Amino acid sequence: MGVLLAAAVLVFAAVRERIWQVAVSDPRRPLLCAVDPQPPRLVRYASDRFESPGGPSFGLVLEDREGVPARVFNLTAWGNLSADSSGEARDREEGLYGQAFELARERWSAYLGATRSGQLGLDPSWETFSEEIVPDQVCAPIAASRAELVAGERLIIGTAFNYIEHAAEAGGRDVFFFPKPVLPTGPYDSLVLGAETTLLDYEVELGLVLLHDIDLAALPSALELDERVAYFVANDVSDREAMLRAQPFFGGPRVTAAGKVQPGFLPSGPWLVHGRDLHPFSAACTRFFELALEVEADGVRTLRQLSHTGRMRKTPRELLLSLVAALGVNSAQTAEGGGALSAEAEALTRQLGLASGRPLLPRGSILLTGTPAGTAFRSPQRVRTLVRALLHLRAPREQWLDDLQQSRRAQGYLAAGDRVYASIQWLGSQNWPVVARREKQTSAAKHCEISSPVF
Which CATH architecture has domain 42-376+412-448? Predict the structure, then answer.
């Protein structure tokens, strides 16, 4: 009986994995377990029709074209919601974003009800995006300023090697954390290729933004965490050469700010979905999210990354638990104000920009949860590289970098003229061109600046 039960479990696991493989074989096709309707989706954009003091408008996505906003309901105009007029809202626990999500749920329910009853009519608060103007109107869904990042009022924490296959292709690394203090940019903005950047890499990731402060000494449960965060599509763009020059050829990986924080290195969006709203939808699909990334290079569009969050080594809450452990946070010690941190914990605390003692992740902070397999980067073939380095009388790392430069296009590194398409189930699709500095650029940045904090 035990053997039969074990066999049944193995068969079930294999069948479920095969269903996922079939379901995500085309990232533009809905999953087999897709549910309808969509959860409320919150977008930030520059309105052509309504003025929004203090920054762009909040909108509820009513319709989309393959994950790109096509029609929105202007929540800022309808609900008198803006960064300049909501100081009281920012003082409340949920902040301006919390109010925007409340309005989005209300209007989404009304929209669905009118649709089902056949009483849907034109609404003056609707705005329609043509494909041509989307890149100039849709902002990053998370509003931030350089001053907030510098002051540590907002943190952006990246995660490395959190997907099973990606860890394997990188040589079996452990999960670790690193800072990425760069402003999120729009999902359709051009990424300008720096003159010294030759090994430009992509990483589609599930991102989450905190809508409340998170006390690392008293972490919420998984369900409570969903009440405090919103999810979005992120891309952790990297300059691999800058990173590899700071990394020893032998030993563990090292992520440096030089390779992660160039302007434009965090394409985000197009929209946010609140954890409370997303939970029922993810539960219908065994709580997994599809992730897919394609690159169009030299006129050919190829699939580079394809996975789902069931391949994560750690869930978002488990990542926070690992962060707590890495920082040496102890609830009893921090409550008493005692307990010395290890040198490693102190270094990570400083690196991430956290306050020592009783670290808090302030609302508006971002956690990137890692990327699946399929990036351009691969661990070096060390023996082969050492032999070639000896033959050419050069250091192993320099030989490695030279080999990468010679084969960078074959390995999939990005170049000017490429376009990246990234999507996550329920969270929309982003696509952005890589351009040389002298080329024409698309950007909504000039419309997306904020005059006062919104978290």
Answer: Alpha-Beta Complex (3.90)
pLDDT tens profile 205-225: 999 999 999 999 999 999 999
Q: Exposed/middle/buried for 234, CB within 10 Å: 0-12, 13-18, 19+?
A: buried
In whole angstroms, what is the distance from residue 227 CA to residue 214 CA?
12
CA nearest 422: which of 313, 314, 275, 303? Answer: 303
Q: What is the pLDDT of residue 24?
A: 39
- Burial label for 368, CB within 10 Å (0-12, 13-18, 19+), is buried
Alpha carbon of 36 to those of 112, 148, 161, 426: distances in Å?
11, 38, 33, 10
| Residue 167: both structure tokens together | 């860890």
Coil/strand/helix, residue 344: helix
191-209 pLDDT per residue, tens: 999 888 889 999 999 999 9
**3-class DSSP assignment, residue 366:** strand
The answer, yes or no, to whether residue 255 has pLDDT greater than 70, is no
Distance of CA 93 to the CA centre of its chain: 24
Both tokens of 266, joined, read: 């965090």
Kind and range of the H or E run holding 427: none
Domain ranges of the chain: 1-26, 42-376+412-448
Global pTM exceeds 0.85: yes
**Using CA atoms, how far apart are residues 130 and 366, in angstroms rounded to an integer?**
30
Sign of CA dihedral 135, 208, 203, 191: positive
